[in-house]
């Protein structure tokens, strides 16, 4: 066996560490304040060093320390409670050392409420495998490798899209970067598997992610000062037995919260089945986050399963294409379409923000046709306000036992 083969074998030997048995999350609290008797839906209060939010709630994606087209004040005006930023993109530009010198993400981007960062794992595998971001949600089968250079027991090696540098992200590095950036809620490092892979690969990736999770916990404990809380991630792809193993693994570790991630199936039905089977098996008293999912229909279905928080880029992403969220009907309109050229009605006068109340659909239609950025800003803030109102109404409906009726109001049927 040559030196290269010996080195390769060494790199893929399991790295096993003993995770801490307990962790003191003294700066955090999750209280379940109400449980629905007809479903797993529940209400809660999630307390962080930067404030308390009511759950269920929606976490908006400020991927590169910026919500697309919106300032932190825009987000506050739209009654946003919590946002997230992305470890992968921020480690590439501007780098965690810049953010740390600025006083952390809260000061860097002037957001003073609760904040979350992901581990960076999803983006490595999503961007590294071309279509894998879609595959994780079951949308296609594109497997052309792009920037991912390799996965070993140590971590993942990839090529920076910024300058072509070769970079490596390990569990220890992910936790260190997230610590330096200073978000309230952070995540273990994991591998997201696409839909097309075989069960054996999914099992191997899950087991490696569990070892990475133990290493994340060890690294987290070293610098733990009560200012951050760590979530573990349930993986296992579309396989029930693997999901059960992963649910048990997260339950047995001293994570503050649980996230459901990895491949969530090839259809909406399969996605709901996976989440539904996970929920009774995870730790019952910890906050539960659903990674990367946030369509209105999914919010209603997954709240009934017990999900506490959601995150998704959709509200601001669709705004850039002219889609404005609505209550009832098809759930959204495309403001670029011809019928809105002379429509003098606002997007939704019942929302207490200028973007939804003061500007006519005709004017916003004109802004999109003229290529004016104000159009995307107005629709983006409107969409954020709509989602925030949705979650406020969902919380009220869970308590009042009227969630089915509220769903009909929003989605029809």
| DSSP, total strands | 16
Distance between the termini: 66 Å
Report the CATH C-level class of the largest domain.
Alpha Beta
Low-confidence stretches are: 130-145
What's the domain count? 2
Spatial strand order of the main sheet? 6-5-4-14-13-12-11-10
Summarize the main sheet.
8 strands, parallel
Instruction: Assign the CATH superfamily of the largest domain.
Output: Queuine tRNA-ribosyltransferase-like
CATH architecture of the largest domain: Alpha-Beta Barrel
Shape: globular
Average of the residue pLDDT scores: 92
Structural class: alpha/beta
Write structural notes for this entry.
About 5% of the residues have low confidence. The strands form four sheets. The protein has an eight-stranded parallel beta sheet with strand order 6-5-4-14-13-12-11-10. It has a three-stranded antiparallel beta sheet with strand order 1-2-3. The chain has a three-stranded antiparallel beta sheet with strand order 7-8-9. It is globular and about 65 Å long. It is built from 17 helices and 16 strands. By secondary structure, it is an alpha/beta fold. It folds into two domains: about 300 residues, TIM Barrel (Alpha-Beta Barrel), CATH 3.20.20; about 90 residues, no CATH class. It is about 40% helix and about 15% strand. The relative contact order is 0.13.
Keywords:
413 residues, alpha/beta, TIM Barrel, 2 domains, eight-stranded parallel sheet, three-stranded antiparallel sheet, 17 helices, 16 strands, 16% strand, globular
Write a short abstract of this structure.
With 413 residues, the protein is of the alpha/beta class.
């Amino acid at each position: 066996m040559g030196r290269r083969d010996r080195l390769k074998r060494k790199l893929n030997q399991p790295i096993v560490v003993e995770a801490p048995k307990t962790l003191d999350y003294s700066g955090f609290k999750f209280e379940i304040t109400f449980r629905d008797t007809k479903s797993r839906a529940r209400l809660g209060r999630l307390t962080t060093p930067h404030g308390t939010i009511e759950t269920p709630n929606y976490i908006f994606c400020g991927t590169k320390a910026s919500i697309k087209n919106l300032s932190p004040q825009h987000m506050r005006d739209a009654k946003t409670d919590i946002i997230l930023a992305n470890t992968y993109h921020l480690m590439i530009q501007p780098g965690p050392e810049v953010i740390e010198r600025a006083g952390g993400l809260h000061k860097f981007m002037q957001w003073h409420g609760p904040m979350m960062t992901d581990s960076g794992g999803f983006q490595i595998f999503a961007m590294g495998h071309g279509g894998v971001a879609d595959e994780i949600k079951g949308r296609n089968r594109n497997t052309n490798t792009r920037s991912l250079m390799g996965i070993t027991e140590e971590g993942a090696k990839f090529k920076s899209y910024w300058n072509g540098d070769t970079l490596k992200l390990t569990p220890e590095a992910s936790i260190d970067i997230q610590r330096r950036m200073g978000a309230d809620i952070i995540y273990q490092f994991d591998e997201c598997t696409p839909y097309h892979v075989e069960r054996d690969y999914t099992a191997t990736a899950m087991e490696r992610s569990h070892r990475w999770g133990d290493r994340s916990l060890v690294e987290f404990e070293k610098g733990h000062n009560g200012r951050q809380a760590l979530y573990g991630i349930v993986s296992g792809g579309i396989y029930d037995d693997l999901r059960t193993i992963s649910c048990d693994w997260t339950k047995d570790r001293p994570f503050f919260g649980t996230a459901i991630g990895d491949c969530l199936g090839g259809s909406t039905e399969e996605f709901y089945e996976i989440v539904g089977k996970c929920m009774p098996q995870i730790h019952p008293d910890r906050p539960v986050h659903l990674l990367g999912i946030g369509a209105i229909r999914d919010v209603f279905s997954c709240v009934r399963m017990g999900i506490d928080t959601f995150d998704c880029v959709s509200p601001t992403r669709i705004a850039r294409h002219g889609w404005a969220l609505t209550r009832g009907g098809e759930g959204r309109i495309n403001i670029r379409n011809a019928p809105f050229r002379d429509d003098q009605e606002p997007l939704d006068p019942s929302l207490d923000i200028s973007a939804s109340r003061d500007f006519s659909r005709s004017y916003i239609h004109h802004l999109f046709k003229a290529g004016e950025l104000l159009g995307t800003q107005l629709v983006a803030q409107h969409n954020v306000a709509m989602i925030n109102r949705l979650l406020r109404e969902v919380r009220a409906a869970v308590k009042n036992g009227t969630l089915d009726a509220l769903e009909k109001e929003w989605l029809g049927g």
